[in-house]
Amino acid sequence: VRGSLSPEGFDFERFMRWQGIYVVGGVSNPERLSLQHRPEGFRLDRALEQWRQYLRAEVRTLLSAPYDAVFLAMVLGQRGDLTPAVQQSFRASGTTHLLVVSGLNVSCIAIGVFWIWRTLLRLVRSWLPRSWYPGWRPTPIAAVLSMPPVLLYCSLVGWEVPASRAALM
Q: How far apart are CA 152 and CA 77, in angstroms?
C-alpha cells in the first residue's frame, strides 16, 4: 500500500497498516476467486449481513420483480436491485425520496414498538397490586424499551444518514 506524497494530507499507508492491511490488489475475473477460510466467531456486522441476505431472499420469494426491488429499497435501503427504468420512473414522478430509509421508517418502528410496550406495561400494571409499583409509569419505560429496536433497525439498514438523523431524534 502506498500513500499520497502530499504534505499534511491523509496518510493512507499508515491508516491501512494500522488496520493490518499491507497489500492491496485487484482481480480482473472474480469468477476465479474461491473462499479458502471463513472467520469464526460472532461478529455483529456478519450477523446483520446474513440477516439482510435472508430478508432479501424471503422478499424475492413473496414478491415478483420489480416489486421486490422497490420493497427492499423502501424498507431496507437496498437499492442495488432497482432497474434504471424503475429509478427513472421514481425520478420522473418526484418520489425518489420514498426509496430512502428515513425518518418515516424509523418513526414507524419507534412508535409501533412504543405502543406495544406501553400497552403491555399498562396491562401488567392493571394486574398487579398497587403497592408493587408505587410511582411506576409505563410511558417512560416504554420509551426506553423502544430504543433497542430502533437501533437494531438502523443497524440493519446500514446507518444511512437520514436513518441516523431520525434515530438520534
A: 14
